[in-house]
């Protein structure tokens, strides 16, 4: 099994005909994703050839859903148009919207997250690498060839660290890897993924990757203490970051001791989560816990 994305998922790409959309649609198809269409009102009615696969372009998301049965969309449109793109996806009844675009104004993100939630559409991102269920489907920009199907679930704020842990633990493999993004306002949280992994019989252990700024990891720690029975191994990026600086993602703002890597580590460890000092040590903790 998996969470959020399976081989049955039918995926649209909003912005498929742009440079990034084209590149990553080709990679998603190569990974086995069932890409059923793109959306571009100016190019509706055309098809785009990806090697041996011709993908139709629709004028609206609603039309694409009616024709193809799509349930998921990956959004590659420019920041100024993301609010409209996600709103359109929610209005069309899609279950999942994966927003890759970075640089989206916070007030737009707040608006489309609220709108999507009211209509039952889960948003992952923005400013995220998406998610992958190895061997089944890939929605976003995560490399599909660095790991294999397995028994580890992964949820991460950082795209780069997602890839590193996937690679370091490639011999064990993953059920699903979710890059939730590091912006101040995101649609799917560590807690959402922890809850989903807890209910997935094929996920034996969860890797949680956080970073400095905000209190998402502290809230995840409280949730783990009360609700998660599966082992969780953690890593927090930013132990060497200077205080009082905005580092990396827009959400990585540290004030005093609040939001520091040390504070997050302490909260997670108090909840029974072993936290690695480096990504490599984190992978080693996973292997030790699985008895490998």
From TrEMBL:
Pfam families per UniProt: CoA_binding, Ligase_CoA
Key word Nucleotide-binding present: yes
Keyword vocabulary terms for this entry: Ligase, Nucleotide-binding, Tricarboxylic acid cycle
GO molecular function, one term: succinate-CoA ligase (ADP-forming) activity
SUPFAM superfamilies, per database record: NAD(P)-binding Rossmann-fold domains, Succinyl-CoA synthetase domains
EC assignment: 6.2.1.5
Residues at which substrate binds: 163
Main EC class the enzyme belongs to: ligase
InterPro entries: Cit_synth/succinyl-CoA_lig_AS, Citrt_syn/SCS-alpha_CS, CoA-bd, CoA_lig_alpha, NAD(P)-bd_dom_sf, SUCC_ACL_C, Succinyl-CoA_synth-like
UniProt gene name: sucD
Catalyzed reactions: succinate + ATP + CoA = succinyl-CoA + ADP + phosphate; GTP + succinate + CoA = succinyl-CoA + GDP + phosphate
Name of the featured protein: Succinate--CoA ligase [ADP-forming] subunit alpha
Catalytic residue list: 249
Associated pathway: Carbohydrate metabolism; tricarboxylic acid cycle; succinate from succinyl-CoA (ligase route): step 1/1
Function: Succinyl-CoA synthetase functions in the citric acid cycle (TCA), coupling the hydrolysis of succinyl-CoA to the synthesis of either ATP or GTP and thus represents the only step of substrate-level phosphorylation in the TCA. The alpha subunit of the enzyme binds the substrates coenzyme A and phosphate, while succinate binding and nucleotide specificity is provided by the beta subunit.
Residues that, per the record, bind CoA: 17-20, 43, 100-102
Domain CoA-binding: 4-104
Subunit structure as annotated in this protein's UniProt entry: Heterotetramer of two alpha and two beta subunits.
Family per record: Belongs to the succinate/malate CoA ligase alpha subunit family.
Organism ancestry: Bacteria, Bacillati, Actinomycetota, Actinomycetes, Kitasatosporales
Organism: Streptomyces monticola
